[in-house]
Amino acid sequence: MVEPTELTWEAPPFVIYERGKYWRAAMIGGFVLMGAIIGLMRLYIPAIVIALGGLALVVQVAEKAHPMLVTLTETEAHFGRRRLPYRELKRFFILSVEEPVLFLEPKRVGGLPHSVVISEHDPLEIEHFLRHYLPEAKENMETGFLRLNRLIGFS
Questions:
Q1: Residue 87 burial (C-beta neighbours within 10 Å; 0-12, 13-18, 19+)
Q2: Strand 7-11 to strand 68-72: parallel, antiparallel, or no bridges (unpaired)?
Q3: φ and ψ at residue 116, rounded to 5 degrees
Q4: Which has the closest alpha carbon to 34: 59, 60, 62, 57?
Q5: How far apart are CA 14 and CA 47, in angstroms?
Q6: Are 50 and 38 in contact (CB under 8 A)?
Q7: Which three-class secondary structure state does DSSP give residue 60?
Q8: Model pLDDT for residues 15-57, shown as the tens digit of each residue
Q9: Contact criterion met (CB below 8 Å) for 129 and 76
Q10: Which residues are registered as beta bridge partners of 71?
């Protein structure tokens, strides 16, 4: 059997969670409370920044994720217009919680993994393909950051 030289699919960059009015109310209430507490300490500028940040977060979350074309080739990954050469990546891993999500971890220190939902392909096929070009993470790579994102519905 001939190995494919590239895999292509269209998918959103992250898992889309349904967020109801209670989620929005909890987020707005949390940011208003933090802003009020900081404002009571007479730290007005940080209080305003937190309130505006919370507002921006709630407004941004209301936007839908637009699907992008994902292509894995022999030398790089394309997430929409973004090119990720394998030489700049440390390893990959696939998390399957609600939907399978591919994560590509950058080599640079402090860089967050690039992620995309695997919707039209078999995760095992993608895993087999990428093993030829990148090492696979052996341990569970779900970081605290990713767990927090999933907990509050931002993954």
A1: exposed
A2: antiparallel
A3: -155, 145
A4: 57
A5: 30
A6: yes
A7: helix
A8: 666 667 787 778 788 888 888 888 888 888 888 888 888 877 7
A9: no
A10: 8, 78
What's the whole-number mean pLDDT along residues 102-111? 83
- pLDDT tier at 122, thresholds 50, 70, 90: confident
Using CA atoms, how far residue 114 sits from 78, 83, 91, 120, 144, in Å, is 11, 11, 11, 18, 16
Distance CA 56, CA 139 (A): 35
H or E segment to which residue 63 belongs:
none
Residue identified by tokens 């990428």 is 130
pLDDT tens for 53-94 read 887 777 776 666 678 888 888 888 888 888 889 899 888 888
User: Alpha-carbon distance 145 to 10, whole Å?
Assistant: 25
Calculate the alpha carbon distances from 10 to 89, 104, 140 in Å.
22, 17, 26
* Whole-structure pTM value: 0.64
Q: Residue 69, CB half-sphere, CA atoms under 13 Å: how many?
A: 6
